[in-house]
Amino acid sequence: MSGPNTDYDPVEVTPLQAEEVEAARDAAIAAIEQAGDLEALKQARLDHAGDRSPLALANREIGALPPQARKDAGQRIGRARKDVSEALAARQVVLEAEHEERMLVEETVDVTLPTDRRRAGGRHPVTLQSELVADLFVAMGWEVAEGPVVEAEWLNFDALNLGPDHPARTMQDTFWTEPADHHVVLRTQTSPVQARTMLTRKPPIYVVCPGRVFRTDEYDATHSPMFHQVEGLVVDEGITMAHLKGTLDHFAGQLFGDGIDTRFRPSYFPFTEPSAEVDVRCFVCRGVAVSSAGDACRTCRGEGWIEWGGCGVVNPRVLTACGVDPEVYTGFAFGMGIDRSFMFRHGLEDLRPLFEGDVRFSAAFGTEI
Ligand code: DAH
């Protein structure tokens, strides 16, 4: 039987010898110091502190030693491993800081560099205003109707009770196209879309018609030979002036703000009977006519109201001309300037920038460019 191996000399176990442990530790620390980046440090950690590193292997040998030798070797190796792990942690901190700094430099954005980004273009404020108006009516179940800007004289005038000799024809300075005997005009109003709608569909009719119109006006701060209108037309059974008033009050409130309503002043249009000019309550002074400073309100010029458009109950002669039986149906119509509405909504005194295509103007109204 063999007794305990008291002759066993731990010095003979090479990996546990002091010089070997020191050499392994020095090699580890040298590799850690040389690691130039986090990737290299990872490799150094694996080689010198991993399961198969010399110090880990030496550590495994300790268990086979007699108690005293085990203690010495344990302390020696423990110290060496501690040195290595401290060196690893310190190098990790340094390399991480370097990495972060490098990323900051590499990812720096030079905001002063020239850009080749092109402007995407934007929607014109008048287009947006037309769509806004159309949307208000679509929300009430109305439809949007359109017609051509080059229009038959008959639809622009005659169908709307403006016969050839009607004095009101001269009020709308008309662009006629050549040859004159073709009787074609640039439409002077959006009202021919009323006639087109009644001729092509049966009541009930609830349509709104935004569009471009033309008159031989001088181009100045308040006139342009081309501008925009929006027409409304309702034809149904039992329609009265009260429906018209309620609709316009709602329209005004939606466009200019809650509580902004309208008033009617008696007027004349050949296509409506009775007819009215419609004013909208000033949305700045809210009808008080004086500003908060006590001066006359600048938006409505101290009137409390702003002229907005024309309206009325559809003339039975127009219904008849467009194939609608006036004994069964009645209707109302209205027409407003879109550019004008836009101008007083935004406090503009001059309408020309609306037609001159400068994006710096459009951009000021929040259109994307
Ligand atoms: N077409 C008219 C104009 O350009 C405006 C107008 C007035 C339209 C009364 C209407 C209306 O539909 O009923 O001056």
Polypeptide structure, described:
- It is a single chain.
- This protein folds into 2 domains: 14-106; 125-363, Bira Bifunctional Protein, Domain 2 (BirA Bifunctional Protein, domain 2).
- It is of the alpha+beta class.
- α1 packs parallel to α4.
- A 7-stranded mixed β-sheet has the order 1-4-5-9-8-7-6, sandwiched between helices. Strands 2-3 form a two-stranded antiparallel sheet.
- The protein has helices spanning 18-34, 38-49, 54-61, 67-106, 125-138, 153-156, 192-200, 241-256, 316-321, 338-346, 359-363; strands spanning 143-144, 150-152, 184-186, 205-214, 226-236, 262-269, 272-281, 305-314, 330-337.
- The protein starts with 17 loop residues before the first helix and ends in a 6-residue tail after the last helix.
- 3,4-dihydroxyphenylalanine (DAH) binds at residues 189, 191, 231, 269, 271-272, 310-312, 333-335.
- It is found in: Cytoplasm.
- GO terms for molecular function: phenylalanine-tRNA ligase activity.
- Residues 135-353 form the Aminoacyl-transfer RNA synthetases class-II family profile domain.
- Belongs to the class-II aminoacyl-tRNA synthetase family. Phe-tRNA synthetase alpha subunit type 1 subfamily.
- This is Phenylalanine--tRNA ligase alpha subunit.
